[in-house]
Amino acid sequence: MPPRVAGYLVHCFTACGAALGFAALLAAFDGRFSAMYAWLGAALLVDAGDGYLARRCRVEETAPHIDGVILDLVVDFLTYVVVPLVALWRSGLLPPPLASLICCVICAASALYFADRRIKTHDLWFRGFPAIWNVLMVYMLVLRPGPLVSTFIIIVFVCWMFAPVPFIHPVRVVRLRRLTMTLTIMWCAAVIAAMIEGLPEAGFLTRAVLIMVGVYYIVLPLFRNFPKQR
User: What's the CATH code, domain 3-223?
Assistant: First the structure.
């Protein structure tokens, strides 16, 4: 295949994540949250593979007219922010007027976060909560906290996006990578189990794994510099 064609095909592959995100958006609007996460999972697979393909095909040289970084951010904003906000709006976790206001605040704050050039630290940790609202919505749909608790949690995470507190990137951060990746795989398996069981009806074991891994991710920044890296 000519290198130029391969480069543009990689960009098209990345853009397919937006199409999958739109399918997830339709499912979220209909209240079919398990289907929504199935589409988001497919989009995540695209997001996991397009970087390797982009490097392999040298898209910056073979297809320079399309900025792969901006394209990736567009897809991420749709799948990580817009889709879960529609799910929050349709979930009934918050009263309708409050849900609309909260979703508008999250969307604006996340847009600012995505445009922040300091989003990564020198050792590849995220600076602040990385606006992965699709992950937070898993917990809210499974645990179903009340409106007051849900509002408090959302406010905390919105503030965390702009706080000087690191949040681990599970793939790129070297420190404790094996443990982090193992727990991340367990988390993905628990999400799949929750989808099969029906998110609000997830079993005790599924909930326990989700909570354990969530606590690990929140507490992990305390051990950012411990143990000493070889």
Answer: 1.20.120
